[in-house]
Amino acid sequence: MQRGINDFKKGYQLVTNIVKNEKDDLVTDCHNILAMWRNHFSQLLNVRWVNDIRQTEVRTAGQLVPEPNAVEFERVIEKLKKT
Is this structure's pTM higher than 0.90? Predict the structure, then answer.
């Protein structure tokens, strides 16, 4: 509802969809634009170069927060009992 009111206040605004292709040509046809986006995300999301997930190296950051010790657990449990 709010969006409709805001659009009414602003008045009519022409929306044009223009995208540059890989040759830096402007593309305005909606079917060609959709095909370009489909191709872009297909290449981006379909990882064909990894044959086996075990081949990829996964690096993780070191432990950012140290493990709590028994004393800290007891302190927190005591606070919970009081509230």
Answer: no
